[in-house]
Structure formats: structure tokens, C-alpha cells
Amino acid sequence: MAALQELGIPGSDHLREALTNCTDPLKFIEDFQVENGILLPSLRPALPFLDLHSMRRLEFHESVMEELRERLLQRVGELAASDLKDKNKRLKEILDKSFPAIRVKPLRPIVMCLLKHLPKIDQKYLTILIDDHELYQEADTEVKRQIWEDNQSLFGDEVSPVLTDYIKNKEAALFSTDAEASSVGNGFFGPTPKMRRQDAVIQKLAHMIGKNVKLYDMVLQFLRTLFLRTRNVHYCTLRAEILMVLHDLEVQEIVNVDPCHKFTWCLDACIREKNIDLKKSKELQHFLDGIKRGQEHVLG
After folding, report:
1. In whole angstroms, what is the distance from residue 143 CA to residue 135 CA?
2. Contacts of residue 101, Cβ cutoff 8 Å, sequence gap at least 6
3. Cα distances (Å, whole numbers) of residue 37 to 10, 26, 219
4. Which helix (DSSP H) or strand (DSSP E) does residue 282 occupy?
5. Which end of the chain has less neighbouring CB within 10 Å, N or C?
6. Looking at per-residue confidence, does 169 or 36 come out higher?
7. Could you report the per-residue pLDDT of 33-91, keeping only the tens digit for each?
8. Considering only CA atoms, which of 206, 211, 193 is closest in space to residue 253?
9. Most distant CA pair in the chain: distance in Å?
10. What distance in Å separates the CA atoms of residue 53 and residue 65, rounded to the nearest whole number?
11. 294 pLDDT tier (thresholds 50, 70, 90)
């Protein structure tokens, strides 16, 4: 494997070439096992016991590697969650040394874990993920957010199915004639606003956005475009529900800059309480008075 050779570990190409050119293949294999095996003197005398139990050396080394991988994933998580001031620098240094291992499937989770915990990933690594479909699909959402920031079309490809699912679910609930579903709160008008925000589709969309203002703006842009094209009011509902989900999650980076936040929050409270008192009525009216005719789309 070329990836292993980049890490200074002899790979399949090295083995093939060495076995082709050596005069004593059996001696070479024995020397290779000694040089690249587990460097633990007390282990070597115990290995023959594995042979007595018909356990291949491959199975043994794979089990050791899996255990070490889990330990390393745990340590990376602990480092990322620590209060160390230089934790990001340490994570980046480990990533720089280990990134070639992303091509080795058993080691890939370690590299992906490092990428996930870095708040700012070098563009050279993001480019590799974009160019390799398999790596991109296996990347965590936290990593993909950094890719989507500068790749609106790719983000649109990811978001589009989610928006479609939302509209389908809304229309299915609206036109459902199942009285029993409505009676238990599963109809269109039954669930409270907070219950509706627990919908898996809305939660998935909120997770895709995270705390990223740029991605949030992209989603609003998609919703505006789709609404103007279809005049489907469910896109307006989704716009409000996304905002309130982020409000529930206390994503201040977004709710503090959205000009519709106070209006939507107030309206959500009125719906929840099934009442518009004088104070809330004045708050809603004050907001609407500030919008000039013909400029509604600016805030929406």
C-alpha cells in the first residue's frame, strides 16, 4: 500500500519487489516478520501458543490493531475535550503525520476522528476529501460543514433531499384523513410547535447547519428560491422551524444575527399558548411596521 509507505512502513509494493529480487524468500519473510512485528520481547515466546489454538498471526495482529485503534480514538477524543490551550495544535500535528493512513480502511477512523475535532482544516485535506467520493461520504458532518462553506452546489445536493422529505411529510400530514392519527397528535394541526421541531428531518437539517452562519444563509437562500418558484407555504413554515430549532439549541451565533428571530420567537410563543395578549400583539405589530411594502423578501 502506497499509503503505508508514505508513513515509512513497508507496504505491498515493497514486499512484491523484495520477494522478486531476494535469493532466499523464506529468510526474507522471517526477517520481515521480526522487523515489522510487535516490538515486545515477552510476546515472541508466547506466539507459538497461538499456533496450537489454530489462530493465524493475521487474526492476532488484526485484534491488536483494533484494540490500539479504539484506545487511540479514545485518547483523541479526550484531547479534543480537554482544556489544553494547544490542543488544536497537537491534533493538527498528529493529523499531518497520520493523514496518509486515510487510504488504509482499518486506520481511516483515526484520521476521520482527528479531522472531526479540528475547528479549521487545511484546504489541502478538504480537497482530497472532495475529490474522493468514498472519503467524502465517510466524513463526519462536522468535517463536511467546512467543505460546504465554499461549495454551495455540493451543499445544495446534500440539502435538497432533506427539503423534499420535509415537504412530502407536511403534505402527507395535511391531506391525511386518518382521524386516529390526528387524535393522538400526529396529524397536521395536532403537534405543538416544539413537538414538530423534534421531527427527524428538521433535526437533521439543523445538524447539517450546526453553528455555521454561512450554511444557515445558504439554506435560507434555497428556501426563498424554492418558495418563489413553487409558492408552497411549507417552505415558509420550515424557515421558521429551523430558526426555532436553533433557538432551542441556543445557537447564539445564528439567532443573534437573524432579523426574524424576535418576531418568530414571539409568534411561536403565541401559538404555543394559543393566545395573543396585548404585549405580544404590540411586539408583532412593531416588527411588521418596520417592514416597507415591497421589501418583505429582505427579512424573509
Report:
1. 11
2. 3, 4, 7, 107, 108, 110, 111
3. 12, 16, 51
4. helix 278-289
5. C
6. 169
7. 777 777 777 777 777 787 788 888 788 888 889 999 999 999 999 999 999 999 999 99
8. 211
9. 94
10. 20
11. low
Residue 183's pLDDT band, with cuts at 50, 70 and 90, is very low
> Burial level of 246, CB count in 10 A (0-12/13-18/19+)?
buried
pTM, 2 dp: 0.81
Helix H, strand E, coil C: the string for 106-165 is HHHHHHHHHHHHCCCCCHHHHHHHHHCHHHHHHCCHHHHHHHHCCCHHHHHHHHHHHHHH
Give CA 61 to chain center in angstroms. Answer: 31
For 39, the grid coordinates are: 516490538
Q: Encode pLDDT of 240-286 as tens digits.
A: 999 999 999 999 999 999 988 888 888 888 888 888 888 888 888 87
Indicate the helix (H) or strand (E) that contains 39: none
> CA torsion, points 197, 199, 202, 204, in degrees to nearest 10?
130
CA atoms within 13 A on the CB side of 300: 20
Distance CA 262, CA 43 (A): 66
3-state secondary structure of 260: coil
In the chain, the amino acid numbered 38 is I
Rounded to whole angstroms, the Cα distance separating 93 from 38 reads 25
Per-residue confidence band for 298, with pLDDT thresholds at 50, 70 and 90: very low
Q: Are 213 and 253 in contact (CB under 8 A)?
A: yes
